[in-house]
Every structure is written in structure tokens, then in C-alpha cells.
Design a protein that fits this description.
Blueprint: H1 2-28, H2 48-106, E1 111-112, E2 118-119, H3 123-135
Antiparallel strand pairs: 1-2
């Protein structure tokens, strides 16, 4: 019996070792594979023609920006010129009305030439008329 017990103990030990080996192999699995994704970026190769075209595009963008800013400044200048001309026109209208009132007060008749421009008296005639008006 003793031989049967020792044979049973040896068989149980071998069985335990085999189960242990089987579990250790299943835990580790087979051969492990890893996937690596490189994150290195390599700049693209540019030929001289590509570099020239890129420089030309940048130059054209800058030129178009400058042109746009100059056109906007011209538009602002035209607005200020327009308002200035309107104010000059208003002042000329006021001066024209004032001169007309002065001429009416002095009794100057407007004689028009064929071109539509009024003919004026000689300066010394105006001086005598002004002095006559003051005397009254």
C-alpha cells in the first residue's frame, strides 16, 4: 500500500506540475506582437519651381492686400473731397447771394454780354457810386 500511496503522490505531483505548466503557458499566450505607429513627420521635398511658385503666391497676396488698403484710403479721400466741395459750393452760393444784395443796394444794373458774364462798370465809376450812396 505504501507503494500505491507513493505512486499516487508522485502522479498527483506530476499532474499538478502539468496543470501549472499548462496555466502558465496559457497566461503568457503565444508570441506577442506590437504595432508601432511612427509619429515622425518629414517635410515634403520641394523643387526650385515649387519654391518659386510659393514665393510668387505670397508676393501676390501681399500686393493684393496693399492694393486693397490703398483703394480704401482713396475711397475715404474721395468722400472727404466730396464733402469739401459741397461746403465750397454752399459758401459760393452764400457769396453769390451776398454780392447780389450788395449790387441791389448800390443800384448796379447787371448788363450781360453775349457769353452770359455780367459787365461791370469801371472801378472809378463804382467808387463814385459808393461815395454817393454813403452821402445819402
Amino acid at each position: 500500500m505504501r507503494a500505491k500511496k507513493s505512486l499516487l503522490a508522485i502522479t498527483a505531483g506530476i499532474l499538478c506540475c502539468m496543470v501549472g505548466l499548462w496555466f502558465s503557458a496559457s497566461i503568457q499566450g503565444g508570441q506577442k506582437t506590437y504595432e508601432l505607429e511612427p509619429r515622425l513627420t518629414i517635410p515634403e521635398y520641394k523643387t526650385d519651381v515649387v519654391r518659386i511658385m510659393d514665393a510668387y503666391e505670397r508676393l501676390m497676396e501681399r500686393y493684393m492686400g496693399l492694393t486693397e488698403s490703398n483703394l480704401s484710403m482713396i475711397a475715404m479721400d474721395l468722400r472727404t473731397v466730396g464733402t469739401r466741395l459741397d461746403s465750397i459750393d454752399a459758401k459760393l452760393t452764400e457769396l453769390s447771394a451776398r454780392v447780389m444784395r450788395i449790387e441791389q443796394a448800390l443800384g448796379i444794373d447787371e448788363q450781360r454780354s453775349s457769353s452770359g458774364v455780367p459787365l461791370r462798370s469801371r472801378p472809378d465809376d463804382l467808387d463814385t457810386e459808393v461815395s454817393l450812396e454813403r452821402a445819402r
